[in-house]
């Protein structure tokens, strides 16, 4: 299917989604998010996709939600449409690993979209921020919630209250991104990382994703119990038997996602 706001490729077991609204620095509008959700739904049943990368352009991952689309809306418009909720829920329910590869601006909804992915690899030109306060509003897709869990209250509060941007070095120091790489290497690095994940048992990778995400939703005690049960359950998979046999036989495992 052809998309107007995205460029989508599948190769080497990686589903690559490029946000593509260059005229608006990839600002997120309803069409883009619905197209993104549509791609993810198709990826969830596509055996050729074992890991996903969401990226933007060199200048902007996404400079926020589309201010022009939002500017005329009323409370009832937003409330009745439950603006952005449907597609972002699809992203949050997607079970295969998703990497955000961020270059340039990741602001407002762009920063929030990156934080909804499983981890962020940033280029050295990346700039993160929640500048919605400059528009008389605030983050609405996790800028006050996920950012606080990533970087702690003090930085999250400062960023949300002042709208200042965080550069890539500060984002790495603060735990917002897993790694920073030179801008020219960003996509290659993200693809190499995705390829490494794609080699694993998808059953184990999906279990890891579910368990790490559970740590955000529950207490430590419940989370550790959940982890242990999932760990035990993996002993019913063929991939566990294969992975451990391959280790003892000193050969590479052949995972079959069973
Ligand atoms: N929305 C719409 N258009 C945008 C946006 C945006 N967020 N960002 C940039 N653009 C457009 C500009 O209007 C401009 O278009 P045009 O040429 O037609 O005027 C084009 O992109 C290029 O932008 P600039 O000329 O401004 O480029 P600069 O390099 O000078 O500046 C900046 C780049 C600093 C990124 C600047 O564009 C900027 O400040 N953008 C807005 C950033 C922002 O405020 N983001 C937050 C938006 S609100 C939000 O994200 C809410 C999320 C919560 C939603 C929750 C729903 C439930």
From TrEMBL:
Q: Which residues cross the membrane?
A: none
Q: Which PROSITE patterns match?
A: ENOYL_COA_HYDRATASE
What is the species of this protein? Answer: Paroceanicella profunda
| Gene Ontology biological process terms from the UniProt entry | fatty acid beta-oxidation
Q: Which SUPFAM superfamilies does the entry mention? A: ClpP/crotonase (SSF52096)
State what this protein does.
Could possibly oxidize fatty acids using specific components.
Q: Does the keyword Lipid metabolism apply?
A: yes
Q: GO: which molecular function terms? A: 3-hydroxyacyl-CoA dehydratase activity
- PANTHER family reported for this sequence: ENOYL-COA HYDRATASE, MITOCHONDRIAL (PTHR11941:SF54), ENOYL-COA HYDRATASE-RELATED (PTHR11941)
Q: Which family does it belong to?
A: Belongs to the enoyl-CoA hydratase/isomerase family.
Annotated keywords:
Fatty acid metabolism, Lipid metabolism, Lyase
Name the chemical reaction catalysed here: a (3S)-3-hydroxyacyl-CoA = a (2E)-enoyl-CoA + H2O; a 4-saturated-(3S)-3-hydroxyacyl-CoA = a (3E)-enoyl-CoA + H2O
Q: What is the lineage of its organism?
A: Bacteria, Pseudomonadati, Pseudomonadota, Alphaproteobacteria, Rhodobacterales
Tell me which EC number(s) this protein carries. Answer: 4.2.1.17
Q: Where is the signal peptide?
A: none
The protein's name is: enoyl-CoA hydratase
